[in-house]
Design a protein that fits this description.
The protein has 3 helices and 3 strands. The protein is of the alpha+beta class. The chain has one domain: BolA-like (GMP Synthetase, Chain A, domain 3). The longest helix is centred in the N-terminal third of the chain and has 12 residues. The N and C termini lie far apart (33 Å).
C-alpha cells in the first residue's frame, strides 16, 4: 500500500467526508530536506466533512495530525491541509 493510500484509508476510517483528496506534492520538493527520490514525502489534503462543522481551523488540523501521527513521525515530511466543514 502506498503512503497516499494509507492516508486515505486512515482518514476515511475516522472521518466520514463528503470530499477527500490526497495529493502527493513530493515532486515539488525534489532536492529539499526530507525529500526522498521515490517521493511520497510531501502531501496536501483537501477535505470537506460535516464532522468538521463547529470546529475551528486549529481543532480541524489537530484532528488530522492525530489520525496521521504515525505517518508524520515516519515517511511524511510535510503535510498541508485545506479542511472545510459542510457549512463553510
Amino acid at each position: 500500500m502506498t503512503v497516499k493510500e494509507n492516508i486515505e484509508l486512515k482518514v476515511n476510517k475516522v472521518i466520514k467526508s463528503e470530499f477527500l483528496e490526497v495529493i502527493d506534492e513530493s515532486h515539488k520538493h525534489a532536492g529539499h530536506v526530507g525529500a526522498r527520490p521515490e517521493g511520497e514525502t510531501h502531501f496536501h489534503i483537501n477535505m470537506t466533512s460535516s464532522e468538521l462543522d463547529g470546529k475551528n481551523r486549529v481543532e480541524r488540523q489537530r484532528l488530522i495530525y492525530k489520525i496521521l501521527a504515525e505517518e508524520l513521525a515516519g515517511p511524511v515530511h510535510a503535510l498541508s491541509l485545506t479542511l472545510k466543514g459542510s457549512n463553510d
